[in-house]
Amino acid sequence: MLYTAFEHQARAMWPLRAWARAAVPMLGNGHGTRSQRQMAAALETMRLAEITHQRPPWDIAKVGEYDVVEETVLTTPFATLTRFAKRGAPTQPRVLLVAPMSGHFATLLRDTVRTMLADHDVHVTDWHSAREIPLRAGRFGLEEYTEHLMLFLRAMHSDDGPGSHMVAICQPCVAALAATALMSADADPAVPASLTLMAGPIDCRISPTAVNALATSKSIEWFEHNLISCVPLPLRGAGRRVYPGFVQVGAFMAMNRQRHIDAFRNYYVALIASDHAATEPIRRFYEEYLAVSDLPAEFYLETVKLVFQDYALPRGELRWRGRTIDCSAIRRTALVTVEGERDDICAPGQTLAAQDLCSKLRPYMRTHAVQAGVGHYGVFSGRKWQQHIYPMLRDVIHVST
Q1: Which strands sit side by side in the sheet containing 62-63, from one edge to the other?
Q2: Between these two residues, 21 and 173, which has the higher pLDDT value?
Q3: What is the pLDDT of residues 236-283, one digit of tens each?
Q4: Residues 325, 397, 64, 74: is their CA dihedral positive or negative?
Q5: 125-167 pLDDT per residue, tens
Q6: Taking 80 as the threshold, does the pLDDT of residue 301 lie above it?
Q7: For residue 112, how many other CB atoms are within 10 A of its CB?
Q8: Is 122 exposed, middle or buried (0-12, 13-18, 19+ CB in 10 A)?
Q9: The model's pTM
Q10: Phi then psi for 50, rounded to 5 degrees?
């Protein structure tokens, strides 16, 4: 019912999009009366505030002197392993950048990819929106997510070179650590040479945030009953149970409601004034932020239950295909944990917990950093990511290669 109602509302907005497109030229050339410009600005602001399901383009055409071409290395019904190939570049360390499956597309990591491309051969887990995945593709839970990481690392592996490196951001840190532990226990030749966990919920018992409190305030049955919907016809994923991306993004925006209200108000005022320098960053941010991706219900519910309610990994109770995940099996993979001092989604200490779980790692293979003055997104994007966190990460990767 919820998803069907959303689709009906989205279709009702189609005329607004057409009106907004027609009105935009009036804002750019300064023509029209003030009332006409105000109406055009209002239409464009309403258009920007609309939720879409279209993955934005990566828009990474060049890095330094090299042209960048997107290549598909491997595709499953649930994800594409995308490589950003630099034409003519020398051989560089291969990195699997693990994007979160949390209501947005992997393109949210555009700044992370662009920064890492300067010194690495970057591959990304480009997750597909569950509303586009037919029922016949089967289930996709936390086990399947973990399996995909191992599958992608093997696809990237070269028999005549060192192992790849894995960098997980936020939610997938648990799956990335589990995949590395499993591959280490099996002496898999594709086990990553280094594993970087950035702002991830390894142990949510430590300094719980409002997000953690919400996850434990309700039963898993409540989450399933109230937040899971079926994809309606005529979408390709019709009948698949999902946690809709528009619900996730709506919850995130509600946490910082006034900030978003102010941003749209500033956008409206800047449009009337034809202040392109002010409107462009706001437009880019919301066109990305409001492009949502649906999560398979199994993955969402298992993540809430196992990661945020049961703390299965730090308790030694997380299992994959019947096998208990033992992080002490990790002995040859350098471990980097990174946290943001002001992170109100994944508090400092929650990611650091991975260092204790990997009890057999030697001290020289461990690195931990807390970036002062940044919140959750500042760990992997923005100026401090580029100037402070990335150089440290780059050095560890190159030493471990």
Answers
A1: 62-63, 66-75, 79-86, 121-127, 94-98, 165-169, 194-198, 334-340, 366-371
A2: 173
A3: 999 999 999 999 888 878 878 999 999 999 999 998 888 889 999 999
A4: negative
A5: 999 999 999 999 999 999 999 999 999 999 999 766 678 999 9
A6: yes
A7: 23
A8: buried
A9: 0.92
A10: -80, 135
**Segment holding 38, helix H or strand E:** helix 34-48
Q: What is the DSSP string of 354-395?
A: HHHHSTTS-GGGEEEEEETT--TGGGTSSHHIIIIIHHHHHH
Position 336 pLDDT exceeds 90 = yes
Confidence grade of residue 29 (pLDDT, cut at 50, 70, 90) = low
Amino acid at 234: P
Alpha carbon distances (Å) from 273 to 39, 278, 323, 352, 401: 13, 10, 61, 47, 52
| Close Cβ partners of 312 (under 8 Å, ≥ 6 residues apart) | 306, 318, 319
Go through the domains of the chain in sequence order and give each one's CATH number: 2-50+245-289 (no CATH), 91-213+295-400 (3.40.50.1820)
Structure tokens at 81: 């392993």
Instruction: Give bridge partners of residue 230 from the DSSP assignment.
Output: 241
Question: At which residue do the structure tokens 């597309």 appear?
Answer: 105
Length of the chain equals 401
pLDDT exceeds 70 at position 13 = no
Backbone angles phi and psi of 287, in degrees to 5: -65, -30
pLDDT at 292 > cutoff 60:
yes
Question: Nearest 5°: CA angle at 369, between 123 and 199?
Answer: 55
- Report how far Cα 178 is from the mean position of its chain's Cα atoms: 18
131 contact partners, CB below 8 Å, separation of at least 6: 53, 231, 235, 236, 237, 240, 242, 244, 294
Give the Å distances, CA to CA, from 195 to 131, 166, 336, 382. 31, 5, 6, 22
For residue 367, the cross-strand partners are 336
Encode pLDDT of 378-390 as tens digits.
Answer: 999 999 999 999 9
* CB-count exposure of residue 239 (10 Å: 0-12, 13-18, 19+): exposed
| Span 83-112, average pLDDT | 96
Omega before 234 cis (within 30°)? yes
